[in-house]
Amino acid sequence: MSTFNPPISPTVATCVAQARTEVAEERFVAQADCVDVLLDCLNAAVRPVVRDFITEALSAIASVRLVRAEEFVASLDQIQMALQVDAAFDHLELPLA
Asked: Residue 52 CB: number of other CB atoms within 10 A?
């Protein structure tokens, strides 16, 4: 009998890294492809600030068909920075009032 291994969900960092690889040589990216990547990031995101950055990036491309690759990469940079900055505070415990 075989054992079932559930699929491993990607992390936001994994989604961002994969997207960077896919758009590395592109000048423009289809809006649908950007939305797919950002929704994957949103589904993987746990931190509210990261989810906010992803939602903003989705809103920014809502009414276009093509996205400049450099703008998309800039959005990925912001998402990655938000993830890193928020994670830097994981070790802090705030006192309850």
From this structure: 13
pLDDT digits 0-9 by tens, 28-80? 999 999 999 999 999 999 889 999 999 999 999 999 999 999 999 999 999 99
Name residue 22's amino acid: E
pTM: 0.81
Determine the Cα–Cα distance for residues 53 and 6; give it in Å rounded to an integer.
29
Long-range contacts of 16-23, Cβ-Cβ distance < 8 Å, separation of 24 or more: 16/41, 16/76, 16/79, 16/80, 19/72, 19/76, 20/73, 20/76, 23/69, 23/72, 23/73
Sorted by sequence, the CB contacts under 8 Å of residue 10 that are 6+ apart come out as 18, 40, 44
DSSP 22-73: HHTT-SEEEHHHHHHHHHHHHHH--SHHHHHHHHHHHHHTTT-SEEEHHHHH
- Residue ranges per domain, the chain? 27-86
